[in-house]
């Protein structure tokens, strides 16, 4: 059993690192925005916006007649998002399962990019998304695929299996979804499922330290946080050896697989 997820481990350093290394999530997020066909003038809600890299790109797309709000529980990341926004979008602290201050039927599009696998009550999050969408509005998420793990997670899982007391360490996110579960959740929240596929991404990292920094920043400090200093160092050393074996011409090559799922709120009868 891995330790529970904490939202208290974030730091200025991790938030800044995410801003630099989260370009991987940014790039697949742009693909989600394409699948959702976000248009100029639309109102968009970005749930789990992090430091606002994708939120900013969406605000560029919706333009001056659009409206974009990012919500994230991590205050340090929201601060960076607000700095980035410069009035072009808004960002505030909040959680996917508790969007009580967001009005009903206001948005054209709601999305969660690399977020829903961290959310304990995913149905509540999607029900909120449904509520705040206009009739006919679109929702979508990308999530780590339970049936198609990232290369890094495969390597790490094999490594952690060596020692019983390493089992407490988290691999990936706690609430990863299968494609089937992604569709069931969208339907249970009231959506007609419009898209459901797994896409693969080829990542390349210059160093093992960069892989580890990316994993820590993406998990807001939860990556290997269950291990004490000495055990953590040992696992990082072993992980480094395993990852160096994957070095190719572009650097350390790791594939990531993400489920892309979208749904439409039925139009008003
Ligand atoms: C990997 S980051 C993705 C950030 C951003 N969406 C992007 O595409 O770069 C995951 C984000 O999920 C947020 N998150 C975690 N639990 C959440 C929750 N319960 N509700 C909303 N966001 C959550 C984290 O704070 C973090 O910013």
UniProtKB/TrEMBL annotation:
Q: Which GO terms describe its biological process?
A: methylation
* Matching Gene3D superfamilies: Vaccinia Virus protein VP39 (3.40.50.150)
UniProt key word Methyltransferase:
yes
- GO MF annotation terms: trans-aconitate 2-methyltransferase activity
Query: What domain of life?
Result: Bacteria
Q: Where are the transmembrane segments?
A: none
List the InterPro entries. Methyltranfer_dom, SAM-dependent_MTases_sf
Enzyme class, first EC level, given as a word: transferase
Q: Name one Pfam family in it.
A: Methyltransf_31
Q: What is its EC number?
A: 2.1.1.144
Which stretches are annotated as coiled coil? none
Q: Which residues form the Methyltransferase domain?
A: 40-153
**Which keywords fit this entry according to its UniProt record?**
Methyltransferase, Transferase
Stated name of the protein: Trans-aconitate 2-methyltransferase
* Originating organism: Paraburkholderia gardini
